[in-house]
Please model this.
Amino acid sequence: MPYNIVALLKRVPDTESKITLRDNAVVTEGLNFVLDPYGEYGLEKALQLVEQHGGKVTAVLCGPADAKETIRKALAVGADDAVHLSDPAFEGGDAAATARVLAAALKQIPFDLIWSGKQAVDQDNAQVPERVAELLDLPHVNSVIEFTLAADGKTARCVREVDGERDVMTTTLPAIFTAQQGLGELRYPSLKGIMGAKKKPITDWNAAALGLDVAAVGAAGAKFQVIQLEPPPARPPGKIIPGDAQTAAQELARLLHEESKII
Amino acid sequence: MKIESVYFDEEHHLFRETLRAFVEKELKPHADEWEQAGMFPNELFRAFGKLGYLGLRFPVEYGGQGLDYWYTVVLCEELVRCQSLGVGVGLLVQSEMATSVINKYGTPEQKREFLAPAIAGEKIAALGITEPGHGSNVANLRTTARRDGDDWVINGSKTFISNGTRANFITLAARTGGEGARGVSLILVPTDAKGFSVGRALKKMGTHSSDIAELFFQDVRVPVSNLVGEPGRGFAYVMELFQGERLVLASFANGIMQALWEEALNYGRAREVFGLPIVGHQAWRHRLADLLTQMEAARQLTYFACDRLNRTASAQKEVSMAKLYACELVKRVAETVLQLHGGYGYMEEYPVCRFYRDVAAFGIGAGTSEIMREIIAKEAIG
Model:
């Protein structure tokens, strides 16, 4: 049976970009943006399921107006259409405020299941999909590395990796799943996909279209405040332990035990 | 990594981004292995065919993408970053050099039999022009094709043929008429034809993952319908279609220069001499500033030639200028970046070492720098 699948995506700075900070925020001018890699795994699984069972994949992304280019990457890879949630009022939100926007949008999009990344690589909150699930009163399974739909299409079996063990969970649909790296092999967009991306529909929704109170979203609705943002401290230089193998090994063991407390 | 230009839009950028990730993850890790093997695996043709990269300019009807030369330029600039130049050479011989003539002048049957499977990566193509005694002087080549009933009977030999050891067909230049340029025709020769043989794979200074070979033709029979376009027009076709090949070489050079520049900065920032990083010394700062200026000139000249080729299909002078300038410059850039690395640049473990060897052929292949100067002078001076 065919499935309507939503892939929740996020636009993040390319992990190879040099991040600069100003006024407790990341300077976005001149940054190269990509789809969040964990979200890409969710999208890949959504595409595979639709290839297998039929249906369609809708990419949903909340981000500023110029995030369209990033949305089109999802369309180039194979999503059928997209919804762009964009409003100046959405900006500066925390996980709770953003989840409110996504949940409001998802009330207007028919879906059988939702995929998302287990976290986004920019802020590593790992909260948004879970909050969306709560707001929509849906079951959710996070950090999924294996996924199978039951033949009747009513339940899904998920495998998660937990402390070196495999945790198997079954849930009814509709539900929200978050992807762990390794859930599938990411595909490259074909040229046909790249050339066709602009022809696929992107629906724009702002706060008014979703009937959202602007005081509950974006910076205004955020409970989370950034007091100070600073780059990680520079890595201290490496240490070379002199001496023959036996002395050096003893000294290394001592340092690992006493200084870095790893063993 | 986004290369801004008035010529590039969002699709070009996304194509480049996709290619860069593909090259980095799927090709570069195998570069050393392929260099040592003297060849990249045949499966790459199929993989590239599947991604749609082997028919960028060719019609959708035969499996191509129906795009302009800009996508070829982006492909070339990015492919060389895998640090195994033979991959770029092999794939572009397949997708541009050996097949563009079939696309332009071939019959629908020829396109179905040769072009479509080349675009899909199912048949490997080679271009047979250079002969042991005749390189730049194409008009004087000696391989003959004699008409016998419904067949051409081909005799002669070719050398320095890229993809030569494994091609399924050769787009062959042979003499069907009298002496001189007007006696040359292009004929499609399947390599399973009786009387065709491949000599040894030639050992060469660089481009180690590209198989180049000598080919021999002894009473090889192919149907007369394998003639491309009109008899006696082969030389004209070759001259026309070399424009694409030369644009490819200029773009390879631009891509390599970009990669060399990054190598220079990586090494020059990390390595300290006399208390300063190499790039902190004015002697190097000025040298690098000069190089970057010339690299930008080479790139913009190539883009100018590409734009003209896209719009007018005849850009002999502009393409020759781009090929001459970029392919001569890349040798100087490689030499300078090697010098910046000092003794380490001479070691195989640094990419500059391989690039230095590979670019030595850039003033030779696809028309030598001397021939480029002849073309430019002839067009500009008469």
In short: Chain B touches chain A at residues 1-2, 10-11, 14-15, 18, 21-22, 50-53, 56, 65, 67, 71 (CB under 8 Å). Chain B is about 50% helix and 15% strand.
